[in-house]
Amino acid sequence: MRFEPDGIEIEVKAGTTILEAAEAAGALLGSACGGVCACSTCHVYVNEGSDGLSDMDECEEDNLDKAFDVRRNSRLACQARLQAEGRIVVTISPASRQTFLTSTGIAAPVAKGDRRSPLLVFFGRHLGVGDDFVHEVAGQSS
Questions:
Q1: Tell me, what's the pLDDT at 130?
Q2: What sign does the dihedral 30-112-62-32 (CA atoms) show?
């Protein structure tokens, strides 16, 4: 299983959820409810291998409705379970990544509408560089 945008890969056995794989691999995937299908913070986009995952059930469908920027390939990582050997590539949604960063204390929440990477904001704050530098690295003008 591969986690984008970081390119983290891990081999997992059938029966493993995307969330379990992410946790084992150290991928930055949020899960406010701890993986019990009570929220939508583990929202991912399955780019490759969706046919090797379990079908979506009603609980997942209901909670996915609460997620931001839902697409055809959206899944909740706590519910999508690997059914057979094969390559799975997922992109962690920006909202899920932000949940991970803020819940672990790695970064403070980024203001709504701020398109900079939470990691850039974090490193910018802790390295003492100004917002102009962070915007430049992010490829944006201030």
A1: 45
A2: positive
